[in-house]
Design brief:
Rossmann fold, single chain, 294 residues, alpha/beta, 2 domains, four-stranded parallel sheet
Amino acid sequence: MRQLRLACTVLVLVTPVCLVTACRLDQQESSTSKSSGAISLLDASGVQHILPRPAGRLLSLVPSATETLRAMGAASTLVGRTDYDTGTWIAELPSVGGGLGPNLEAIVSLQPDLVVRFAGGQDQATPSRLDELGIPHISVRPDQIEDIYTTAKLLGRATGYEAAADSLVQAIRSNLERVASLTAKLPRQRVAYVLGGSPPWVSGPGTYIHEVITLVGGENVFGDLGPLYSAVSFEEILNREIDVVLIPNEAAADPFLSQDARIEVFGPELEMPGPDVVETASRVAELLHGIELP
């Protein structure tokens, strides 16, 4: 193999015309792909994929991506769900378990022509097994507001719903701008988002939670932390002069959090970047400022 690579290197150096020929062949293959309806996709892992046609049997292992498909009007392409897709609209579809480490036998039985999975190294086994099984898959990274747009466009291209995806992105952008403008002149509220735990975990900078809070006229009091999420002491929370503490559920509540701050149970929506971001941002704004947005 090493000798073959060396021979190829020498050949390229000696005969640069081969590079030109190779480029022409690549262009011809690209033209052939376009004419045959093939689709080129660059996913969140930076991997290039070629689909022979738009996906018609899609399995999403990412709940926010599942909701994005629905918002695009592409719910009919879905053939299965995860245990974390709890909407009534998708309850009748079979589940393949979790989004990380799903049941591969269940996936195979659904015969998807494309699987959407989480990007990152937290589940390296699933993409490897999908490759072995010959099931195409693309990755998405639902971390920030911008990822909502990127995911929608990727899914739109993968399913042939590009126009619907573009319309969804435009609608989300414009409505978020509207929410931001309605709260821009209101007094800024000092906010902490506490995920729970003991010691409690809070949302730091660079997170979807931080972005939404900032967008609607809030100031994340832990926006100066280094990590995206970090455990802090109750003493540090009390020393931050917090106006509002947002928590995902009652289990995250603690008497120490309510010394001077108002505690609001928000639900899990603020932890999942998805197409409902406008509704989520509007609700955060109303909780922080005590108003009802038009």
